[in-house]
Amino acid sequence: MSEIAKLQSKLDEMQRLTQELSSLFAALGPDAVDRHRVQSFAQELMSVATSSGAVQVMDVALLKEIFMHSLDLICVANVDGSLQLVNPSFIKTLGFSEAELLSQPFYNLIHSDDIATTERAVSSLANGQSLLHFEIRCKTKAGDYRIISWHSQANARTGALYSVGRDITAQKQMEREGENLRRELELSLAQSIKSEKSFRAIFEHSPLGMVKLDRKLKMVSVNSAFSRFLGYSEKELLSMTILDVTHPDDIVCSLEAVGRLAPQQQMLQKFEKRYVHKSGRVIWGLITSRAVQFEHTGEQFLFSVIEDVTELRRKDETLKLTQSKLFDSEQNLRVVLQNVPSMIFVKDHKNDMKFSLLNRAGEELLGVKETQFLGKTDYDLFPKEQADFFRQKDREVFASHGVLKIDKEEVNTPVGKKFLTTYKVPTYDSEGKAHLLIGISNDITEEVLAKAALETERIKSIQNAKLASLGEMSAGVAHEINNPLAIISGAASLLEKSKDDPAKFAAKVDAIQRSTARIAKIVDGLRKFARTPNQTGRVPVVLANIVREALALTEAKAHRHQVRVYDDLLCSGKMLCDEVEIEQVLVNLVNNAIDAVKTQDEKWVRISVTAERANLVLRVRDSGTGIPCAVADKLFQPFFTTKPVGHGTGLGLSIVKGILDQYGATISLLRSEPNTCFEILIPQVGKN
Predict the structure, then answer these.
(1) Are strands 615-622 and 574-577 parallel, antiparallel or unpaired?
(2) DSSP result, 136-161
(3) Nearest-CA neighbor of 344 among 373, 318, 316, 313?
(4) Across 296-445, where does the E strand assignment appear?
């Protein structure tokens, strides 16, 4: 072999050893065994380098300093997901210890939404490609995520993956904030332009007169309504002051009103005054004025809106006289009260809250005559429990000095149970003491009964769908029960033979007990799933626990169709719910996912629960490639199904949506995902 060929061979060997040395930089820490491994590689490398004449000295300490003090994250991993080496910056950024990092696959550190992307990236690296600026979210020990930009390359000979990452979380946050600020500025500008256009449109087309005055009360801008109000043209008005068209007797009061306005106070001045029309007749205007100052120019002006109240003023005396006669006349008031369709009653606070009035609508609603009510209290007319409720509300309304609304109150009457919405209004005498309580009630009995009937039908629909799911799961459940039954049978048959051997006898008994517990768990889960929702109340429940119960019920079906089911349930957030209803939501979604992928080559379902602000976020993904838009728009419609005839009712997703609506939760199909993914946002207990 020629000297050149020998030298080239040694250089190749040196390059290989250099790569091996790089993969062991982190071993230069306190671990003596690892340090010896690195030093031996370094010595071998220096031997090759020296013999080849390429270098004379290899500074291992310098390589150690670079690895130990780099601000970037440095790691070495295998394509199977195991981490081999990590530098201090890697440990500091994610918060895990070195032992914790090296004892788990790096996929555990990646956000669930980025795992599929990472798997594709690893495949590309294994095929010899290098990756630059590859961004993924990595989980910290505190539970949050950091955005890391990776530069990665694979060693074709060893299969090791060498990666250098930089934490760009703050940079991404600044980019998002900048984008949000830009959008806000654009929105503010658009709103400003829109507001100006809207104001001009209102000014020009308003049915009310509008005028802008300068500091000398000269009219500098008027709209067409003000021109019509005074009979002058716009050009004529712009050559006049407001005092030129003011009635002489009202000039002083006008100047006093203007004098009370100041731009700094931003106050409104509202008053009436007389104007002189171009024809000479007197007209009345109701004026609302405000003084305004432009900050950039210092210009001050007075802006007024004028409503023509001439006709109202003319009819004022007649209207007052009519109102006085109407409301001062007990007979006329009685006519009004007796013909109002709502129940009206009056209680006298000064006379132990005894009834002093009940109108005709009240007699019909309660099935009694007014004479049976007058002079009696709630305790004379209703059961004590109801009377206590009514009296408590009476005390509340007088204490609040305002109108009290009771959305739903139940009343037992001779004609049956009634449900009412009631407004209670307190009145006081001239000394401010409690006087009369006026009640106005509307009958909502039919509405309440209709809602109850609708709720009953909703529960029936949910229960029917649940029973259908139970029927579908029956084959798998039977298989799940048969296995422990076979164990019980076999162990029981051997008990007699094992009675003289305590250890074997105890083992058989233990097998029987564990198999019995397994059957009990399966049966308990089915019994719990089968019960009707209204048998339980809404209580705070950990959502992840409900997911586990649902997965236990769908386990047999997934196993039968060889579908792998994964879960990411690290979040312990709670929701206020009847867990049976939410369990049915999850069973429906998981069963649908299994049905969708059971005939595919790649078959998996992944469920995750995370928390974002005030919501719990539950996602159900499967290995499907998504749902066409034409189908997705109809997914939640009743009786719509993509399954073959006889394999689905089309009610599953509509029932899921109906249940979630009851809890203020939302469900949607994430079309941006590469796989089929349903996302549910659920209000989290204790979060606003």
Answers:
(1) unpaired
(2) EEEE-TTS-EEEEEEEEEE-TTT-EE
(3) 373
(4) 300-308, 343-348, 354-358, 404-413, 416-428, 434-443
Helix pair 502-530, 543-560: axis angle to 10 deg: 110
Amino acid found at 196? E
Pairing of strands 564-568, 604-612: parallel
Handedness of CA 641, 643, 646, 649 (dihedral sign): negative
* CB count in 10 Å sphere of residue 290: 16
- Taking only the tens place, the pLDDT of each residue in 242-297 is 999 999 999 998 888 888 777 666 667 788 899 999 999 999 998 888 887 765 56
Which range among 51-60, 69-78, 231-240, 592-601 shows the weakest confidence by mean pLDDT?
Answer: 51-60
Determine contact, residues 7/31, Cβ cutoff 8 Å.
Answer: no
What gap in Å lies between CA 609 and CA 606, rounded to an integer? 10
- Name residue, tokens 């009240």: 362
* DSSP string computed for 352-387: TTEEEEE-HHHHHHHTS-HHHHTT--HHHHS-HHHH
Count of other CB atoms within 10 angstroms of residue 136: 20
Cα–Cα dist 204/194, whole Å? 15
* Dihedral (CA of 466, 469, 473, 478) sign: positive
So what's the pLDDT on residue 244?
94
pTM exceeds 0.70 for this model: no
Banded pLDDT at 683 (limits 50, 70, 90): very high
Contact 564, 599 (CB under 8 A): no
Q: What percent of the chain has pLDDT over 90?
A: 18
Q: H or E stretch including 608?
A: strand 604-612
Taking only the tens place, the pLDDT of each residue in 436-481 is 998 888 888 888 888 877 767 666 666 665 555 555 555 555 555 6
Assess contact for 465 and 652: CB atoms under 8 A. Answer: yes
DSSP assignment, residue 533?
G
* Mean pLDDT of the region 482-505: 67
How far is Cα 616 from Cα 543, in angstroms, rounded to an integer? 8
Given a contact cutoff of 8 angstroms between Cβ atoms, the answer to whether 442 and 423 are in contact is no
Q: E strands of 232-276, at which residues?
A: 268-276
| Best CA proximity match to 532, nearest among 584, 492, 472, 598 | 584
CB contact at 8 A, 215 and 241:
no
Is residue 225 within 8 Å of residue 206, measured between CB atoms?
A: yes
Instruction: Calculate the average pLDDT of the chain.
Output: 76
- Gyration radius of the chain over CA positions: 41
Instruction: Provide the CA 96 distance to its chain's centre, in angstroms.
Output: 31
What number of other Cβ atoms are within 10 A of residue 168's Cβ? Answer: 16
Structure tokens at 405: 């609304």
Residue type, 213: L
515 phi/psi in degrees, rounded to 5: -70, -40
- Going by C-alpha positions, the residue among 238, 245, 233, 237 that lies closest to residue 285 is 245
Give dist(CA 591, CA 652) in Å, integer: 10
The answer to whether 441 and 407 are in contact (CB under 8 A) is no
- Element counts in the chain: helices (H) and strands (E): 22, 22
pLDDT at position 267, please?
Answer: 67
Q: Which helix (H) or strand (E) holds 106?
A: none
Helix, strand, coil shares of the chain, percent, nearest 5, are 50, 25, 25
Q: Which two tokens stand for residue 245?
A: 């068209």
Encoded amino acid at 462, one letter: I
620, 590 Cβ separation under 8 angstroms: yes
Tokens describing residue 259: 């004098």
